[in-house]
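Re: that chain you flagged

S.,

Sorry for the slow reply, it's been a week of failed gels. I finally had a moment to sit down with the sequence you sent. For the record, here it is as I used it:
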Amino acid sequence: MTELYSSTPTALSRRTTLRAAGGGTLLLGLGLAGCRSAVSETEAPVGAAAAEPRRGGTLTVAINSDFTPSLLFAQSGQSLQHRLIYNTLTRYDDRLTPQPELATSWEYAKDGRSITLKLRTGVTYHDGRPFTADDVIFAVKNLQNPLRAAQLRATAAAVTGFEKRGDHELVLKLAHPVNNLFDLFEFMILTDRNSVEDAVTGKKLIGTGPFELTRWSPGAGLSFTRNATYWQPGRPYLDAVEFRVVPQADALLSSLRTGQSQLSYSVPGKNLAVVAGRPDLAISEYTTGGGAYYLGVNTTVAPLDDKTVRQALAWGIDRERILQQVLGGYGLASATPWPKSSPAFTETGRTHYTYDPGKARELLKSAGHSRLDLPLLHINLPGDTAVAEAIQYDLKQIGVQVTLQPTDPATAQKNLISQKMPGLWTMSHGFAQVQPSTLAVSAYPFNEAKNTSKFRSAAYTEVVREAWTTPETGARANALRQQITDTLLDEAFIIDLVIRGSVQVAAKKLHGVTLGKFAYLNLDDAYLAG
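Prediction finished late last night. Pasting the structure tokens below so you have them in one place:
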């Protein structure tokens, strides 16, 4: 047990410029406006405010895997607690319009080679130290550090200079224009620069967020208490938050039904129907929140180095069956990574690969194979295991025998980052819910320069780099996004199956809960109504 102590100028739009003098008025109620994206099945959405917010109480969140300190700066299934401890510079709303957080306003230079940030005053870290421009400089340089596992390193690396104009104004100078700078600003947690090495070992985590992390009990959970000096007046309402690790699906479900926990994003799809019938619980789906189940393919393992074989696998999986039987009907069967909210989404791309085992067998035969034997790594949690078993069943029908390799979440994520995956693996990915260029520049499975599949293509790199540095709107941007999609479908080194954001199960007495675009839990406005 460890104790912890306390967009470019040629396409300027509402995404790229905002002037908000002081920022205070715009931030009123930002916890709801800035990251609300859940669609509830109840008459009133989970998170909708009751007549009067109530102060006090402890919220217990049931999670199925523990916090992994070494992955602090990477977005993963262990990132849920980030926004409780840390703030970010900005947050997107559902239209991908950035909203103020610790940056109150910003302005791009006309050439797209710099951006000026006005920073919030009166903000302190949990240890009392004031937040200044030096903390933003540190945060950017920290993500540039190759020792940090961080998906948006390429965007951070595009920042090549800093000009401080006092403690609360900062100019970031860019090597070239990028259209996903606000993805970085929401992804980049603003950690205490004096204790960062303690943070990545789990000894001490200090931020400016609404709660202070007081205890991490490895394997059991995390404890948070209210930050009495939080910069947003009157927030948070809750006195404390507990994260409890409950890896067994039945035990997690029982904790929700008995009221031992009031919130979870870890209920397996097949158990959601049980929850849906309870009068005290509600289900909400974050349809624009970002996430997708996929089958990954190591292109250096024969015969998976042949894209005909990879395409056969893509035709051989019944996405609709996985959606309905394994994921409880929450999500969207899709051959591409893009949610419907993405400007890269097309219905033609979504349905490019449908379930056709006959065509899959024909493709394998044309490549000289009637049977293949391959390993399939998956995370050893109930929901992930169910997806892996469904893939195993479908591939068996086309002559591909797969041996399941259950792996704990932290090890699986580290293998993903270090490109140590076997021939096949199945996990979930994010980064398709923000600027489309971010997926192929930053996400480990898709990264054009160094991806988990070890797929390399000069043409793929060229189109990704152009998409990243091109204004986000217009005909050229649309054409580049389509080229990326076409490459992903043709090369099939990542085979998307179901687009699925977070599915929230919460007690109906809980209000004001939101998730950001990177699934950081926001409890600024959360309260228990009785």
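What I noticed first: The radius of gyration is 22 Å.

Talk soon,
D.
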